[in-house]
Amino acid sequence: MSAQQIGITVDPALEAAAAPLLEKLVSDGVASELSAQDATLWGSDAESEASIRLSWTGLHRTSRPLIGEIEALRNDLRSEGVDRVVLAGMGGSSLAPEVITATEGVSLTVLDTTDPAQVADALAGDLDRTVLVVSSKSGTTVETDSHRRVFAAAFEEEGIDPARRIVVVTDPGSPLAELEQCRKVFLADPHVGGRYSALTAFGLVPAGLAGADVARLLDQAALVADVLAADTSENPALRLAAAFAAAHDGGAEKLVLADTGSGITGFGDWAEQLIAESTGKQGTGLLPVVVEGPDAPGFGDAGGDATPVAIGPAGNGARIAAEGSLGAQFLLWESAVAMVGRLLGINPFDQPDVEAAKKAARSLLDDPDALHATSAPAAVAGAVEVYASAGTSAEGSLADMLREFTATVPDGGYLAVQAYLDRLDDASAALLRSELAKRTGVQTTFGWGPRFLHSTGQYHKGGHPNGVFLQLTGASEEDLQVPDRPYTLGTLQLAQALGDGQVLADHGRPVLRLHLTDRAAGLAELVRAVQELHR
């Protein structure tokens, strides 16, 4: 790596294919214009959106005043014995803080779920030592609003004033900006979209309160800012963007992301949202496939539809590798993905298909009878109820159904596993990704619901129309009422799963929903059925 702490390695054949695109980016002055926040880079249709979404290019400078504010609040809280930080946020409001704190080894409890058991687990922590960071750009995110209400009621029940234990991060003018029941409001830069907000208050406040060195993060980004703004063929962001676009043009519409010893924990999950939500629209885009490591199925054995990308040193079959400190990687990938948008002819700052699933979920919440009057399962296999969209088979054993379903993945398509479960207690569900990929030979993604709705959910509806979707839902032994709302967390979770499934089916995407009437037993049966599949 250079002194600027960033390094890119590209397979020679791919680099040769990318050379014309790289030359075009350099000659058009894209890097310097992006750094100067030129909203015309993506065409006239995107200009109005881009004009209010480009402040992220200068956050290594403009976020500096936050450092002192965060440190002062953290010291005040610690002096009161409050040292446990819980973050209520979705998508761009949670993914960056989770990566930052995990990489630095400091504790942060992240709530980006509507699963009652996972929220109850967070509530079971020591509330006397807890501060809740409520983080939402719009101020109306239904999951985050529900978490705030649940925690405020729990604080009051313990005799704790919620106004002393709730910290807000939001945009100016949002409903949360006027919240009286909070200790402090941090207003983020409104000219930054959620997935580009790692170095705004959304990334820095929860991470800093938890004890991460956010000043160092900004320093790391500052070290590479000039390099990434240079109109030269050596610019790592330009090289990365050209390689991604060239791979896509060659039919490799998927990026398989594996950590190869970067020293960063969970970077793929952050990059997943950035790539999928920025590029997956108008029937095109790059689908990120986050895998367990370079030896995982889908990476070293990737076919022509996918490009293995190492986060860390090159090797293990990677065609692209990106090395660097966390702050540098944030700015590198944001810059490269914005440039890919220009090369693919799309607006990298909107998310036109995300609202559809939210609207469908709200409709079901508004009509509880419709939500709970679901049709009878097409089949029952022990603790697993099977619900299939039109054209999806539900005959035979559970293994037979999975075999028939996965066979519907078209050539060059993908399988998406969507688990509306507890990502702590039901963590074994994540093993399904590698098992299905190994046995089907197709690129397979895994997402925790509703977390992925704020991430890959855009690509699922707006990207290449070649995905099939395996939904997992589960019965909840105990539910949690959302105060002052006519629904429980369990009801909200089910509405989100059914709403998204409905939208996917309306888009002609095959959907198979497996409902676990007993989560542990159902997951065990599902794993056994997957192991019966043969490539």
Automatic annotation (TrEMBL):
<dbReference type="InterPro" id="IPR046348">
    <property type="entry name" value="SIS_dom_sf"/>
</dbReference>
<comment type="similarity">
    <text>Belongs to the GPI family.</text>
</comment>
<dbReference type="GO" id="GO:0048029">
    <property type="term" value="F:monosaccharide binding"/>
</dbReference>
<dbReference type="GO" id="GO:0097367">
    <property type="term" value="F:carbohydrate derivative binding"/>
</dbReference>
<protein>
    <recommendedName>
        <fullName>Glucose-6-phosphate isomerase</fullName>
        <ecNumber>5.3.1.9</ecNumber>
    </recommendedName>
</protein>
<keyword id="KW-0324">Glycolysis</keyword>
<dbReference type="GO" id="GO:0004347">
    <property type="term" value="F:glucose-6-phosphate isomerase activity"/>
</dbReference>
<dbReference type="Pfam" id="PF00342">
    <property type="entry name" value="PGI"/>
</dbReference>
<keyword id="KW-0312">Gluconeogenesis</keyword>
<dbReference type="GO" id="GO:0051156">
    <property type="term" value="P:glucose 6-phosphate metabolic process"/>
</dbReference>
<dbReference type="GO" id="GO:0005829">
    <property type="term" value="C:cytosol"/>
</dbReference>
<dbReference type="InterPro" id="IPR001672">
    <property type="entry name" value="G6P_Isomerase"/>
</dbReference>
<dbReference type="GO" id="GO:0006096">
    <property type="term" value="P:glycolytic process"/>
</dbReference>
<comment type="pathway">
    <text>Carbohydrate degradation; glycolysis; D-glyceraldehyde 3-phosphate and glycerone phosphate from D-glucose: step 2/4.</text>
</comment>
<dbReference type="GO" id="GO:0006094">
    <property type="term" value="P:gluconeogenesis"/>
</dbReference>
<keyword id="KW-0413">Isomerase</keyword>
